[in-house]
Design goal:
The protein is mainly α. It has helices at residues 2-12, 15-33, 39-50, 55-72, 74-80, 92-100, 104-137, 142-160, 164-178, 204-222, 242-248, 250-265, 270-285, 298-321, 327-338, 347-350, 352-384, 388-407, 410-428, 434-456, 468-496. It is globular, with a radius of gyration of 22 Å. The relative contact order is 0.18. The chain crosses the membrane at residues 59-80, 106-133, 145-161, 168-186, 198-222, 314-336, 356-377, 389-406, 469-487. Keywords: Membrane, Transmembrane, Transmembrane helix. Residues 18-438 form the DUF112 domain.
Length: 499
């Protein structure tokens, strides 16, 4: 084990890998700081670049860019009242109110410092929990994986969607897309329309680039209001007063870090949901709830810790089970397969050095956030003044080149454009994109494990409940299905009962 850790340090502290981490960190800071661009979009645009990298620098680029983008999304929220990334939206009004009161450096400092603390906590849980879960996962058969995938898809709908019905529609659309091609247990071509390029299914990378990057370009193209008015509040020393906040709100720091890691580990939830849940919990449990919304740092402390701890938490199911914790790890799983680091419980046995290297990169990226984040805050006003009319055409060019480079196929460029338009219309009509992406990633896995299990059981469905772990996961999944119905009936009964 010590030899593996030593080898991992040698891989990470190679000058080339360190240069990749630094470059992707700067890229992530830029992507997060520009409103409308996101951490997911940053990772999607990095995918074509990783084609030419060895496994460790490729994953290091994505880890670094993601961590930085989630933090830097707080900067335009504080200065413009426009969240740079969805995970920053939970406390944008709070941070902007602090800037208007002349406390912008406290708001940005809290976002920076507690993002680092939350990120390091989530990384510690990832390092400890992932190998232990992998040992448990070695006992899994197709029955357990079927229920686990089904539970992940179910949680993605109920947790990540304000409208479960639209979440269902989005999920089934993703599962339909996953059924295209010959990648099914019977090897029968489905929905290919006699197109040879579709026999292998819809390529994941062009689909991701289209749904997360191309859709933003389209949104910019049809929008008429993209003016940016930056707050006049000066930003001084962002580290001043951070120790006082840590001493004053220690429970908030721990609560945000723990909740963020747990929510991040739920398939489909991710940093966005973690930040909203953490901010709501902070307000509910605060001794000064009346101050929330007026420029109070407590919610920023807790949510800032939550959104970055959720990033590491999302890697737990991704590495151990191959089930993405959020849309970012959905893209990363594709890159892991491309680099022959196949996610699953055996990844810690077959590629221990690479796994330790990824853990070290997580720690390094979070520590690097302090100096680079401080620099980005100082440069924020200049970054935000880049005309988006120049930025968006460049992103469109990256989308086209990246999609073509996947398989050197013009069909993939068409797939990127089609799914970009589809994601745009979905979001404009309130249909969440995340369930569709999870449906694409997990749809084939669900079908494969179901068919395999039915063959083993000779068609007896009760076999799905006969093994202890499978039976437990099955019961939990059914409870998750029935719980909303039970709560709805209970509320209806209470409303009908006389006062």
């Amino acid at each position: 084990m010590l030899a593996n850790i030593y080898a991992a340090f040698g891989m990470v502290f190679d000058p080339y890998v360190l240069a990749v981490i630094l470059g992707s960190s700067m890229f992530g800071l830029f992507m997060g700081a520009v409103p409308g661009l996101s951490a997911t979009m940053a990772v999607a645009l990095l995918v074509p670049v990783t084609f030419f990298m060895p496994p460790v620098p490729a994953i290091a680029a994505m880890v670094s860019a993601t961590a930085m983008a989630i933090f830097s999304g707080d900067i335009p929220g504080c200065l413009l009242r426009i969240p740079g990334t969805p995970s920053s939206a939970a406390y944008t009004d709070e941070a902007y109110a602090m800037t208007m009161k002349g406390q912008g450096e406290i708001a940005l400092g809290a976002s920076l410092v507690f993002s680092v603390i939350g990120g390091l906590f989530g990384t510690a849980v990832l390092i400890l929990a992932a190998p232990m879960l992998a040992e448990l996962a070695l006992k899994f058969s197709s029955f357990e994986y079927f229920w686990l995938v089904l539970l992940g898809l179910t949680c993605a709908i109920f947790i990540a969607s304000d409208n479960p019905l639209k979440g269902f529609v989005s999920l089934f659309l993703g599962m339909f897309i996953a059924s295209v091609g010959m990648g099914n247990p019977a090897g029968v071509p489905r929905f290919t329309f006699d197109q040879p390029d579709l026999l292998g299914g819809v390529s994941l990378v062009p689909l991701m680039v289209g749904m997360f990057a191309m859709s933003e370009v389209l949104r910019f193209a049809v929008s008429k209001d993209f003016t940016m008015k930056i707050a006049d509040g000066r930003v001084g020393n962002v580290f001043k007063g951070m120790w006082a906040l840590t001493v004053k709100y220690p429970k908030s720091v721990w609560r945000g870090s723990v909740l963020g890691t747990l929510v991040g580990a739920l398939p489909g939830a991710g940093a966005d949901i973690a930040a909203w849940m953490s901010y709501a919990m902070s307000k509910k449990l605060s001794k000064e709830p009346e101050k929330f919304g007026t420029g109070h740092p407590e919610g920023i402390v807790e949510s800032g810790a939550a959104n970055n701890s959720a990033l590491a938490g999302a890697w737990i199911p991704a590495l151990v089970f191959g089930i993405p914790g959020d849309s970012i790890t959905a893209i990363v799983i594709g890159v892991l397969y491309m680099k022959n680091l196949n996610p699953g419980p055996m990844i810690f046995v077959e590629n221990p050095v690479s796994m330790y290297a990824i853990f070290i990169v997580f720690i390094l990226a979070n520590l690097l956030m302090l100096p680079l984040g401080f620099w980005c805050i100082k440069m924020a006003k200049r970054i935000l003044m880049i005309p988006r009319g120049i930025l968006m055409p460049l992103i469109l060019l990256f989308c086209i080149v990246g999609s073509y480079a996947t398989n050197n196929s013009v069909t993939d460029v068409g797939i990127m454009l089609v799914f970009g338009m589809l994601a745009y219309f979905m979001e404009e009509n309130g249909f969440p994109v995340a369930p569709a992406v999870l449906g694409v990633v997990l749809g084939g896995m669900l079908e494969e494990h179901f068919v395999t299990s039915m063959i083993k059981a000779d068609g007896a469905f009760l076999a799905f409940f006969e093994r202890p772990i499978a039976g437990t996961l099955g019961v939990v999944t059914i409870i998750v299905w029935l719980l909303p119905l039970a709560l709805k009936m209970l509320r209806r009964r209470q409303a009908m009962s006389p006062a």
